[in-house]
Design a protein that fits this description.
The structure is a homodimer. Chain A is of the alpha/beta class. Chain A has a six-stranded mixed sheet. Chain A has a four-stranded parallel sheet with strand order 5-4-3-6, sandwiched between helices. In chain A, strand 3, helix 3 and strand 4 form a beta-alpha-beta unit. In chain A, helix 2 crosses helix 3, helix 6 crosses helix 8 and helix 10 packs across helix 11. The longest helix of chain A has 22 residues. Chain A is globular and about 60 Å long. Chains A and B meet through helix 3, helix 4, helix 10 and helix 12 of A and helix 3, helix 4, helix 10 and helix 12 of B.
Chain lengths: ~325, ~325
């Protein structure tokens, strides 16, 4: 099961994004990771699964809302190795208008037991999940660490530190050093992993996360800093000063918050699909790509090589297609 | 646009299919071709597009029903190079119960003009499409040749003749010569291409097409023979006798006809998704894989290396998910 997951994803030249400012674009197609419809969560989910098995656990507790890409991937990973998976779930932040998201459909198909709870009852419900599995004689692994969701940040971060080795090898073949890297930023694991991995690989690229959530500027930055520190801590080292110099988080392009739709984002999604067949979704990748283009323009970046990490979410593309095209 | 399409697809060991008879399985993951959600139609569509451009045409006429993977891919290819695309469409053979298939949704999103017609009006509607485009000053290319859909069989076949080079290179690395190859068979282009490509590559593998359509045994075989002959004709050669010796078409596993659902097929789809996250659909790949397993058992094949070509159809997987999981 693990072998095909490790296939390299294409680093695709995206000349359809090139603009009058002379910037040249590439897309790292992590949406094409060959497991469970791809996405950054495949790399991250695999890191969690490896950690889970290494710790001798035979059950996994996951957490997320009903549209969660991570929960879909983890459900699929657990099913594929035959370990129990229990999901603690809050309702979607975005109103799904009675439509059941594709990710939830798949999670249910895979037979994952779901414990629904309110936002202020997560820790208690995680406790309940541990108890349930313990009673069944299982040793459970909670992906986020302790009941408060702390202590395992570095595992998620490590996935993209590792991915940077692949990315830098591909960059070396381009004959065009990447100067700017952009990615969607939710919890910050992917952004932190990119920042650490590029820093460790001596890249001079500046990494920018486009926040797609409702988090305040301060809280979003705190999340990312914590994640970065946790990975270096797990390596027994401090964070190099040059990492902070190359890392940015932009919260101004979230279009009002998590899942809030935006006309310019949808227009970009339609355009990109038309010219390249690359699927983007309105919550993560579409918003992040719109933010990237706006950010480059606002800052007057010219004649540069820019990389966009496509973090996947193909089921979310089909959610939009199923809801909006009739 | 074309570069990433040519990425090799994984040849994945599928030990979850291994059985007591000692057969070992591999899946050629053409569902992962990195354009428009993949599938064999990406290779075939690209062959049509190249032929279209080579002939100096600047518009394409396509034909299929509303769930057609080929029409979705061709719509995406035409949009990506900016040429007009006009679709002649009959209703789906399978009753879709008022549900608009994902492929149709995407085709509409891409702005393809659709000319609907009854099954006995296809040739007239193709004529109409040619006239419409001519009046707009366009030189049109009809993917199937003349108004009766004849004369271009070899172009589709050539795609899988070419793909066999990739397949045989991968097989050489396996240290396990493939003895049986299976694929879904509709019109027969993919099966014919595999048969010709493997024969040209001096493979000893036997290639079996599992018919998923309502075609009679006689008519299905005629289609495949015609396709094989057309490719060799395009090469100025006759068909080698040994090709026929290695080619089989089985119509007994179509479960009653095109799109007819089947409980054992659905159970296999659920099982495969659970253990491997590989999506299959009930019309093509699910039925073909069920047919492969039944065929091997019926014939008493033992201790052999077997390859299943995954011909894609991811949007059809989401069709089933959207319709059946609520």
């Amino acid at each position: 099961m693990i072998e095909p997951i490790l296939t390299k994803t294409p680093l695709q030249r995206a000349d359809f994004l090139d603009n009058a400012a002379g910037n040249r674009f590439w897309i790292k197609r992590d949406d094409l990771l060959p497991f469970s419809f791809g996405g950054n969560k495949v790399r991250i989910g695999l890191a969690f699964l490896e950690d889970c098995l290494k710790k001798g656990c035979d059950a996994m507790i996951i957490y997320g809302d009903r549209r969660s890409n991570l929960c879909r991937v983890l459900s699929a990973l657990c099913a594929s190795v035959g370990i129990e998976c229990l999901m603690v779930s809050t309702d979607a932040e975005e109103d799904t208008g009675g439509f059941m998201p594709m990710n939830e459909r798949m999670i249910r198909t895979l037979g994952v037991r779901i414990l629904s709870c309110a936002k202020d009852r997560i820790a208690d419900t995680v406790d309940e999940a541990f108890r349930t599995l313990e009673e069944e004689g299982k040793k459970a692994y909670y992906i986020y660490g302790n009941r408060l969701g702390e202590g395992n940040e570095h595992t998620a971060v490590s996935a993209y530190v590792k991915a940077c080795t692949e990315l830098l090898e591909q960059e070396a073949l381009l004959n065009a050093p990447i100067q700017y890297v952009y990615t969607a930023c939710g919890t910050g694991s992917t952004l932190s992993g990119l920042a650490a991995g590029l820093c460790e690989g001596r890249s001079e690229a500046q990494v920018t996360g486009i926040s797609i959530s409702s988090r305040s500027d301060e809280r979003a930055k705190m999340c990312v800093e914590k994640a970065v520190r946790s990975w270096y801590e797990s390596q027994g080292r401090g964070v190099p000063e040059r990492l902070w110099e190359h890392l940015r988080l932009e919260t101004r392009y979230n279009c009002g918050g998590y899942g809030v739709p935006d006309r310019r984002v949808q227009e970009l999604i339609d355009h990109v699909f038309r010219v390249s067949s690359i699927p983007l979704d309105p919550t993560y990748t579409g918003k992040a790509m719109r933010g990237m283009l706006d950010d480059l323009e606002r800052r007057g970046v010219r004649d540069s090589n820019v990389l966009f990490l496509h973090t996947g979410g193909t089921p979310l593309y089909f959610d939009t297609l199923a809801r909006d095209s009739e």
